[in-house]
Amino acid sequence: MTKTRIWIISILSILLVSLASVFVIAYLVDQDTVVDSRLIGDIDVTLLLYYHKDGVDYPIEEVVIDQNDAVFKSGVFQLDVADPQATEYVENLRIKLLVASDVDTYVRVRIVETLTLTTINYLGERTEIPIVSEPTLFNFESTWHYEEGLENYYYLKDKVKRLDASTPLEVEMITSYFPGANYNPRPLGYTVQFGVQVEAVQALMGPEMNWNLPNPPWGGAW
Known about the structure:
Structural class: mainly beta
Number of helices: 1
Radius of gyration: 20 Å
Shape: elongated
Distance between the termini: 28 Å
Order of helices and strands: EEEEEEEEEEEEEEEH
């Protein structure tokens, strides 16, 4: 029997935005085995963002800086927080993940957001002013765990992987606003600009080695 040592780090994609470094990243970690051969799997997680209004899904687009020159903020999206009738209204945000990993995977997610006041003068010049405010609350599904002091990450409590070679697993994150509640609209001109950071690690020693978490934030063992 031979002893093999494996170290693979796979970055799926990197989105650099003005709010912060926001990215999707996946890891396979160092493993010691005592087998003659081992199949090394892939960590593959895709983020899906969209709006849902009146039973219809609408695509979400990056924040436009200059429509004429097609200039966008890469990886930065926007929520309307002033007009409850707008498709982009904060209550209509939906987020899910598609997990195509062929090994057991743990996932954590962080939303980086900034309340922004946008003005346009008589010349059509656009000015954005970031506003200090309380973070926007999002209604994550109960399968996600949030705990202050952990860099504002939401942790998926279950390890996940694809259903089969051609079928990724859908993992819901935000499917509705808070039941029986409504967002308190802000004055016209205000929006929330945000990015989403997703980190996925293999279940075997991934959280311990990449997140420095010997145990799950919700208790027990990985």
